[in-house]
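Table S5 (text form). Sequence records supplied for joint modeling of the two-component complex.
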Amino acid sequence: MKKFKILSIILGGLFLFTSMSYKTDEGDKLIGVWEPSNKKAKIKIDKISGKYYGKIVWLREPIDPVTKKPKTDKNNPDESLKNVPLKGFRMLKDFVYKGDGEWADGTIYDPQNGSTYNCVIKLRDDNTLDIRGYIGLKTFGRTDVWKRLVMKKKK
Amino acid sequence: MINYFLKTQVLALSVFVLWGCGEPEPIKTDVQKLETIARGPLFEGVNTATVEFDIQKILPNEVKKEQLSEVRIKSIQLALADSAAPVPNSFTVLLASPNTSMKECGFIQEESIKSNDYNVSLAKEQEFLEEILQDKMQTLVIDFDLKEDWFDDYTVTAVIDWELKFKN
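The corresponding structure-token record, covering 323 residues in total, follows.
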């Protein structure tokens, strides 16, 4: 009887560990380089201290046509941060994996108007994301489709 | 009888108000030196170095981080640990914690790096720091834009001069 109890505890622990690591691996499907539908930028999503963040790693037009210098976050509501380089800017912040291919509790920043929106990310398939930015209720928002950048296989 | 209750309530309210209005006291601390690491190999473009820390470790024993109030960063100076490592185009410094949102603390532009000035231009609004430092742990994040590939680890040292106050 005692042996059976010990075996149950070990098996239970093993099951818990396996399911936890499975959930973590599932969440990591978000990691990679993604392209929004307007194709103006590429965003790399990585994981820092358990949460997911996305930074701009490529811009179609990296140089500001007025200043002739690399673009900066000129619409930032904080005056002192208007010269932060746009390349590298973290526009997705604080996403937590909720299971079932969904990441929530995060925000998305739009450098074109300097506004930050609540955001939920849904994995449509391994290489497609539905990014929904909203204010208040999810109903009042807009969804953009992002595609993962994948290396084309050589023939 | 009513008069007695009224007097007691006024007295209790006064004590509460006086207690709440206590001025935060400054904490004397040394500058904090943190080594952020990006594991190589790294490729040209934007990369990230991070380090987790607990602000409690630089506080005097009698002060708990939950008592922190009116927190500011006076300065942050960055340095590359390996002199052979490529100098990036720019740096952005951010802070995060498990229960708060990641925030930009400041940045260094290409012009400053070219003139060997590694002092971070700090964000004017720093109200978010109090909440981050009171959390169970903190993460310092440094994004840097490399001009060329680097096949080793990349270490950026940050020396942070905090202005910390606490409430009893």
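Note: Helices of chain B lie at 2-20, 110-114, 129-134.
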